[in-house]
Amino acid sequence: MTAEMIQSWSIALVGGVLIGAAAVWLMAAQGRIMGVSGILAGLLPPKPAGGGDRGWRIAFALGLIGGPLIVQAVTGASAIGAPVVSLPLLVVAGLLVGFGTVIGSGCTSGHGVCGLSRLSPRSLVATATFMVTGALTVLVVRHLI
Amino acid sequence: MLKLASGLITGLVFGAGLALAGMTDPAVVLGFLDVAGAWNPALAFVMGGAVIVTFIGFRVLRGRRHPLLGTGFSWPTASAIDLRLVGGAAIFGIGWGLAGYCPGPAIASLAGGRIEVAIFVAAMVAGMIAARFISAAPASASPTSASPAALKR
Lengths: 145, 153
Hints:
The complex is a heterodimer of chains A (145) and B (153). By secondary structure, chain A is mostly helical. Helices cover 74% and strands 0% of the residues of chain A. Chain A is built from six helices and no strands. The longest helix of chain A is centred in the first third of the chain and has 28 residues, at 3-30. The two termini of chain A are 32 Å apart. Chain B is mainly α and 153 residues long. Chain B has seven helices and no strands. Chain B has helices spanning 2-21, 26-33, 42-62, 83-99, 103-108, 115-141, 143-152.
């Protein structure tokens, strides 16, 4: 194992700790699960009954965009990579990600981080499912086509 | 006002975490999913770190009556493991494996100012709206029986 590998793993671990801290904070402060797809979808039509919580959802999304800019300002390194696939494929992938996360009630944050932390069997099944189909998709695209 | 600030702080910490974790670089994400190729396991540490912190934090919060800025905790109550859950997760996974973006990192990557990322996010939002209309369809047909599901969402 090279020093560079250890460094990238430890930075990844710090990133994970921050993600966990954000999830704990949102539950402690507002009693909400930090699921990005759920928070985002709550802003979209058709509107659910109740509502009135658009403000913090928008603030959350703005913060999400601001976070990498802070990392960039502090470290001086660009934290954001470029897309690696063509535009038509990005559109198809975007549609699938948006559609799938709403139908499946969650994504990597809601099911993967918060759900696994609650030891939810439902989230374990969802996380295992999207990990497997994600890996299979990469396998097909990179190695079989 | 406090909820706005809290939401912003959550987003900032989460977004900074995603950037440090490498989740805002689709090449890193696809490298993690590429188990048959040059597998890059770093994202397992991201997931591990996040789950350990959240597991401990949620345990502490379980005993509390109400959150700092609200009247109650919205712990998820759904437990059904059905076709909807598995099918939705499978569809999401395919999209994730195609482009290397899941919803959080996609939004966070808008900070890079690339038009392609904005197009991905627009497509993602369109997919979400489509799924929400499909999900809401039974509610308009029979409002009384479907309203609890609509409220939960």
